[in-house]
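User: Let's play a game. I give you a shape written as tokens, and you guess the letters that built it. Ready? Here's round one.
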């Protein structure tokens, strides 16, 4: 017998579904600065990781609190953004800073008699990198899954000598 999972839809989600898609308001510098400072103070929101049993609810509550503050900082006449849009703004900011750091790193690695033009990272960029970590930008190293060859390894295995 198959069980059918039912999903409850909140009132806000239902309103979003029924409304015509309209452009959300654009973020300003005050909102961006506040968001980065909030993420520094609340790293669990930035990473999206749960710490407790009710972590998902706590995380959603933190995002709702952040969204309320960010929408209060909007310019007059600009539409409010919902939680989904602010999460996308955070994702886009992380991607932008990551690409900027990657270009900077690659420019510094170039050799030759070329003059290199690049913009240094701003204080905000460094805060974002501190939040997401340098592994997000540079990636992680993955060891080879195949062991290195040893001298006389076939003979050693044939003699029953298994040392790695």
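Assistant: Ready! My guess for every position:
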């Amino acid at each position: 017998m198959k069980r059918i999972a039912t999903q409850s839809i909140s009132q806000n989600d239902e309103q979003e579904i029924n409304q015509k898609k309209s452009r959300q308001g654009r973020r300003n510098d005050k909102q961006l600065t506040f968001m980065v400072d909030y993420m520094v103070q609340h790293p669990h929101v930035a990473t999206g990781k749960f710490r407790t049993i009710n972590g998902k609810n706590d995380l959603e509550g933190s995002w709702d609190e952040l969204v309320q503050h960010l929408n209060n900082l909007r310019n007059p006449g600009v539409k409010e953004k919902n939680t989904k849009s602010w999460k996308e703004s955070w994702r886009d900011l992380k991607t932008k800073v990551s690409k900027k750091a990657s270009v900077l790193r690659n420019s510094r690695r170039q050799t030759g008699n070329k003059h290199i033009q690049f913009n240094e990272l701003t204080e905000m960029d460094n805060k974002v990198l501190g939040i997401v970590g340098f592994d997000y930008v540079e990636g992680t190293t993955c060891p080879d899954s195949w062991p290195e060859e040893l001298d006389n390894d076939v003979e050693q295995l044939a003699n029953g000598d298994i040392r790695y």
